[in-house]
Write a structure and sequence with these properties.
It is built from 10 helices and 12 strands. The protein is an alpha/beta fold.
Length: 339
């Protein structure tokens, strides 16, 4: 099953038997069997009929409303799974510094190893471009990532671990930016608002990925707002963000690199926004979501189970592995790692 993104402004979703219809001005733009949908995301000025909303609730399919930049405006979800023992265990574990550090180390280790794999892939296919233009060679950047990977196991508190992750991320983004087309690359990572097309794509992708992991947490019965690595903050889905980390490179960064270097999107697909930000136009958004959805439906070999699963399915698998760790059924959490 997959996420259904509806981006046609002025459209609405309707119910027809066991199908979701996307219609506009009484014309049906798309018909999707309900059994093929795991969640629905309405982007911008898109509505839904009451029968469609009720069908989604009855089937346990969450619905998210986001604006054109990917910012979540709200979620419609069925009642939380009646798995109080799991949530009680989650809340207890979140107060245990040793457990938080152990899970944090696993998450950061998975993220950095995935970042390292993508960085080496970039160097292999873009040997002339992946250096830090002003100060460091590509080899220096990769060495910084390698040192960070080796340091994770020695981190004795979360603040130290976050510092290691931040330093590695800075080096990794230098590698990534050097692999993008010059007219579509970025000088540094900027958010709220993104200052260039590449940052706009990265921010949108990470926001969409967070929604996917929130859904995975809810399906399993976990509270997506109480995490272990990310600090608790009002309104922040900390646990979903914990799980996001290991998928940033293989899902979002790979899609951003593809749509930029394959010229799927270009400068004409972006519009200036408020406060100096740069955002995808409606046309550009449709292009990006098409590639993002394809990535979610890509099958990869899961290292823990040894079988091929889509990324969308892997999200849920990782949430279940974390739930088993919380409940003591596994000794440690095993993050997702690409080869």
């Amino acid at each position: 099953m997959a996420t259904l993104y509806v981006t046609e402004q002025g459209a609405r979703i309707e119910k027809e038997y066991r199908r979701l219809l996307v219609s506009k001005h009484d014309d049906v733009l798309l018909a999707v069997p309900l059994g093929r949908v795991s969640e629905v995301v309405l982007v911008g000025r898109v509505g839904a009929t009451t029968p469609a909303l009720l069908m989604l609730l009855d089937e346990g399919i969450p619905l998210s409303f986001v604006n054109r930049t990917g910012k979540l405006r709200g979620r419609l979800t069925p009642p939380s799974p009646k798995n109080l023992p799991l949530r009680h265990a989650q809340y207890d574990r979140a107060r245990d510094p040793d457990f938080c550090l152990a899970v944090g180390r696993a998450i950061v280790d998975g993220k950095l190893r995935n970042s390292r794999a993508l960085a080496y892939r970039i160097r292999r296919y873009h040997p002339q471009d992946c250096g830090e233009r002003r100060r460091s060679s590509a080899g220096d950047l990769l060495e910084r990532i390698e040192r960070a990977v080796e340091s994770v196991a020695q981190a004795d508190d979360l603040d130290t671990l976050r510092g290691i992750e931040g330093a590695a991320a800075k080096a990794y983004f230098e590698v990534l930016r050097g692999a993008l087309r010059p007219e579509m690359t970025f000088e540094k990572r900027t958010r709220r608002p993104p200052r260039d097309p590449a940052n706009s794509l990265l921010s949108l992708g990470y926001t969409l990925l967070t929604q996917n992991l929130m859904t995975a947490c809810e399906v399993v019965g976990l509270d997506p707002y109480d995490g272990f690595f990310h600090a608790d903050k009002y309104g922040r889905p900390a646990l979903a963000l914990d799980l996001v980390e290991e998928f940033r490179g293989p899902v979002v960064d790979s899609v951003v690199q593809l749509v930029i270097n394959k010229r799927v999107v270009g400068p004409a697909d972006f519009d200036p926004g408020r406060k100096g930000g740069i955002y995808l136009s409606n046309r550009g958004l449709r292009k990006f979501l098409r590639q993002y959805t394809r990535r979610l439906n890509t099958e990869i070999l899961h290292p823990h189970y040894g079988r091929r699963l889509t990324y969308q399915r892997v999200f849920e698998v990782q949430a279940r592995l974390l739930a088993k760790t919380i409940q003591g059924q596994l000794d440690k959490y095993c993050p997702f790692r690409v080869r």
